[in-house]
Design goal:
The protein has about 550 residues and is of the alpha/beta class. Helix content is about 40%, strand content about 15%. Helix 2 links the parallel strand 1 and strand 2. The longest helix has 24 residues. It is globular and about 75 Å long.
Length: about 550
């Protein structure tokens, strides 16, 4: 019996020792978080890589790969497109250990702005995807695709000539060609779109410079293309999702990445990738290591980069519609005709231009995009008192700050009845006066939502100008309880709103807002319906500002 007791004590000591040793191998960690002794690697990547990046980060962290000194490497990622990332870093934001962009010139843009080498050269590419015009298949076929090749300048020509659009479309998809691309100050693909238009207009140039941007033909070509743009998205994933959710009657198409097209899901009609015959860009996602890091951290970043370029991660990239850079992973489904893509395209690829063209392009775009005639319709009823109205003032002020000089703004307030706070006014020379007026807003009274929307639509119709984007943003936090002219959003109400020619974007502000009414108004006018509160209203106004070309991001 004594021997058995001795053996049991010995086994217990061994077990405790093994548990102790296993505990020393990896420090404890909070649920879902890094081990306490982990080396944290921060990675900023474009929104076009979100799906692949998130899965890769989770898998890499699960493997508990260690540094040479035995510390687990833990990657933390953030999806931010290049224009926003550069602005954040120039504004004092934290520098990531690894920065992935769509094109190599972004590293040079940042380094030039800072005046020193922030990220090291020789940035490995981790995936590829071409820039394409995503178009609904019936529209593409009506234009002659696939027998006829289509290009960047074709879109501009159709936008500038409604009769030509009517000839090809048969009047089936609206009076004009309507497309969208991302905001060039915020998004990689937005800058690439403008660069592609310049290349196409120059017809055969091997590279573009700031001198090309001043070419009258180039400026006219960009202006014609921008004439078809209904609004600007903050990233291509958002643009794809809106295209897919709203369908063929909303937009004719949009400038996307091929990966966005092939990940649209099964649907009818299908979005197909048009590879412009003049050429296009291919996002190669160069990934740059931050300079001036210690050897251990640099080694950890390089370990993660090697993981991203290895076969398993590259197969995962392909599953997300990205073309692998590892030759051991061939291009295959979903990059195929069944998903709207052609793996043999593009046949001509534009070379990335010098960094100084990126900033020059921002000025070109602001000068050639359509001016905006905007009406803000703001609920100032009693339920808006306190923090709600204060945050609306702040957000509206930021919105006005980002409007272009040649844009025009009307501000209409409503409580028991609508009233004009700022009549239709050119922003240039009046920006601060408009902001001062907005700062006088106070809350009180009832909610005349229906009468106020109609009054705003009638006022906007009086101030419409050809060649401008006419839009209305309606914010309300409650149900209509005092309107006299319209007690419901009936057919007569809808007719007046539609006759204004404006897209109406609505913000249901808080839990008590009339969400269904606001959403239906937005859908009927090709607008966007938002739901927000005090915490999110500023982000919503920032997104709406970007949608109409607000001055945000790099070069602003």
């Amino acid at each position: 019996m004594a021997n058995y007791q001795h053996l049991n004590r010995l086994l217990l000591i061994v077990l405790i020792g093994l548990l102790f040793l296993s505990g020393c191998d990896a420090a404890p960690r909070a649920e879902g978080g890094p081990p306490s002794n982990a080396l944290i690697v921060s990675w900023v990547y474009p929104t076009s890589l979100i799906g692949w990046a998130e899965e890769s980060i989770a898998d890499f962290n699960h493997q508990q790969i260690k540094t040479q000194d035995g510390r687990p490497i833990w990657v933390q990622g953030a999806a931010t497109d290049a224009g926003q990332a550069v602005s954040a870093m120039l504004g004092g934001g934290e520098l990531p250990a690894l920065w992935t962009t769509a094109q190599p010139y972004w590293r040079d843009v940042l380094n030039q702005q800072v005046g020193s080498e922030v990220f090291l050269p020789n940035c490995p590419e981790i995936a590829q995807t071409p820039l394409v015009i995503g178009m609904w298949e019936p529209i593409a076929r009506a234009l002659g695709w696939p027998a006829r090749t289509l290009g960047w300048l074709d879109i501009g020509s159709l936008a500038a000539d409604p009769s030509a659009w009517a000839y090809y479309s048969g009047g089936e998809w609206g009076d004009t060609l309507r497309i969208s691309h991302t905001h060039p100050g915020l998004s990689d693909s937005g800058v690439e779109t403008l660069q592609a238009l310049i290349y196409a207009a120059e017809r055969g140039s091997d590279s573009i410079t700031t001198a090309n941007i001043e070419n009258p033909v180039v400026r006219a070509s960009v202006g014609a293309f921008e004439g078809a743009v209904a609004w600007f998205s903050t990233n291509t994933a958002q643009l794809r999702d809106r295209l897919v959710s709203r369908g063929i009657d909303y937009l004719s198409g949009g400038v996307l990445y091929e990966s966005d097209v092939v990940m649209q899901g099964e649907r009818d009609p299908l979005l197909v990738a048009i590879y412009p015959y003049e050429g296009t860009f291919v996002a190669t996602f160069p990934s740059c290591v931050r300079a001036s890091m210690d050897e251990t951290t640099t080694g950890a970043v390089e370990t993660f980069l090697a993981y991203l370029r290895d076969v398993p991660a590259q197969q995962r990239a392909l599953a997300h519609g990205l073309r692998p850079v590892n030759q051991d992973v061939p291009v295959a489904s979903p990059i195929d005709a069944a998903h709207g893509a052609d793996p043999a395209q593009p046949t001509r690829i534009f070379a990335p231009p010098p960094a100084d063209t990126v900033l020059a392009i921002q000025d070109l775009w602001q000068s050639q995009r359509q001016n905006v005639n905007m009406t803000l319709v703001l609920d100032v009823s009693g339920s808006m008192e306190g923090q709600k109205i204060e945050q609306v003032r702040l957000s509206a002020n930021e919105f006005v700050q980002q409007m272009g000089d040649n844009d025009r703004l009307t501000v209409i307030l409503f409580d028991d009845a609508p009233r004009i706070l700022v009549p239709n006014t050119l922003i240039q020379g009046n920006r601060q006066r408009i902001i001062n007026q907005i700062n006088t807003i106070t809350a009180g009274g009832g909610t005349s939502l229906y009468d106020s929307i109609v009054a705003a639509a009638e006022d906007l119709a009086k101030h419409r100008h050809e060649g401008e984007v006419n839009a209305m943003v309606v914010l309300s936090d409650g149900q209509d309880n005092v309107s006299r002219r319209f007690v419901s959003p009936n057919a007569a109400f809808s007719a007046i709103v539609l006759q204004s020619g404006a897209s109406v974007h609505t913000i249901a502000y808080g839990a008590d807002a009339d969400r269904n009414v606001l959403r239906n108004i937005a859908l009927a006018t090709n607008g966007i319906a938002y739901e927000g509160d005090v915490a999110t209203i500023n982000d919503i106004y920032a997104e709406i500002s970007a949608a109409f070309g607000g001055s945000a991001g790099i070069g602003r």
